[in-house]
Every structure is written in C-alpha cells, then in structure tokens.
Design brief:
Blueprint (H helix, E strand, L loop, with lengths): L1 H36 L6 H8 L3 H7 L3 H5 L3 H14 L6 H18 L1 H12 L2 H26 L7 H23 L6 H19 L2
C-alpha cells in the first residue's frame, strides 16, 4: 500500500513536470510565430506543429490561441488571492492590499523578457487587449471581495471595496505600462509603490 502511494505520487510529479514543460514549449512556439508573422496570421495548427505536438494535444492545454498568451492568468489570480488572504487580520485594509500587490511584483521582474515579448504582441492585437481587460476585471473582483471581507460589508451596497479595488489595480496597470514602455529597464516594485503612493495622498500634494 505504501509503495503504491509512493508510485502514485511519483507519477503525478512526473505528469506535472511534463505538463509545465509542454505548456512552456507551446507558449514559446506561439510567441515566436506571433512575433514573426503577427497574431492573426498564425493558426492553432501551426503553433502545435512548431511546438512538436498534435492539434488535439494543443487543446488539452489551451482552449484557444488567445489563451496561449494569457495562460498565466489563473496562476497569478490564485497568487493574488493567497497574498491577500495571508495578510495579518489586524492590518489596515489599504496596507494589506498594498503589501499583497507588492509581494507579487517581483515575479514579473523574473519573467521580464517573456512579458515584454507578450506585451508587444498584445499592443498590436485588439482582440487580445479585450481578453486581457476581462481578466483584469476578475482581479478587481478578487481585491473587492477581500476588502469587503476585511471590512465585514456587502460589496454590492458598500462603495469602499470596489473603489479600493478599482483604483488600486488602475495604479498597478499604469505602473506596469510604464515598466513595459521602458522595456523593463525600471524596477517594477518601485514603480508600483510610487503609483500606489499617489493614491495615498500623492495627488493632493500636486495641487498644493
């Protein structure tokens, strides 16, 4: 029985490594093709062939070619929710949100090259931009719900959770946009912190 459990765990570990490797290879193949020919000119069959898999295998990993570029959405959303939930219970709401967001920005720095390549492709493709905006709304809902839980309020009737979520993530988007515009040359956590500082009284200082 113990041996069976060990074997099963080993098999699951091998499968997970295989899944991650295949996902990464397909994403790299797609990025290469999109950069060379443009997003709209590339088909799923061509991505699959470039990645060395069948069309059927491609659809085991992605539901569409759009999802290849946005494949990390679920993972990052899970990280955001976990970061928000991990903040100390007695911490002020705005501090908790700020620290949760900042804890994630280091991951973007580590994936700089891939994110820059993806950003260039998305900037030229309206359909991808629309899909990305949909994902951003899900992020806002995650922050809104976390804030509402901390305040003990209903976000459907209390304005504060949605306002905090929307303004915070808008500031983050501006910071990420500036980071991408500088080709990743700036320090992303610093840019995000500066953007959040503007929400915390910085804009008022500009009018003084």
């Amino acid at each position: 029985m113990v041996t069976t459990l060990i074997d099963r765990g080993s098999t699951e570990g091998l499968w997970e490594r295989h899944r991650r490797r295949t996902t990464a290879e397909l994403e790299e193949a797609a990025l290469r093709l999109f950069a060379e020919r443009g997003f709209d000119a590339v088909t799923v069959d061509e991505i699959a062939a470039e990645g060395g898999v069948s069309r059927r295998t491609f659809f085991r990993y992605f539901s569409s070619k759009e999802d290849v570029l946005l494949s990390d959405h679920a993972r990052r959303l899970g990280e955001l929710r976990a970061a928000l939930a991990a903040r100390p219970a007695g911490e002020p709401v705005l501090t908790a949100v700020r620290q949760a967001i900042l804890s994630m920005t280091g991951g973007y720095e580590q994936e700089r090259e891939r994110l820059l390549r993806r950003a260039r492709i998305m900037a030229e493709t309206p359909t991808l931009q629309a899909r990305s905006l949909g994902h951003q709304r899900v992020w806002e809902e995650a922050v809104r719900d976390a804030v509402a839980l901390r305040l003990g309020v209903d976000p459907a009737v209390d304005l504060r959770p949605a306002v905090v979520a929307t303004t915070t993530l808008a500031a983050v988007r501006v910071a990420v946009g500036a980071w991408l515009a500088r080709e990743g040359g700036a320090h992303l956590p610093t840019l995000v912190a500066e953007a959040l500082d503007l929400l915390d009284g910085g804009l008022q200082q500009m009018s003084d």
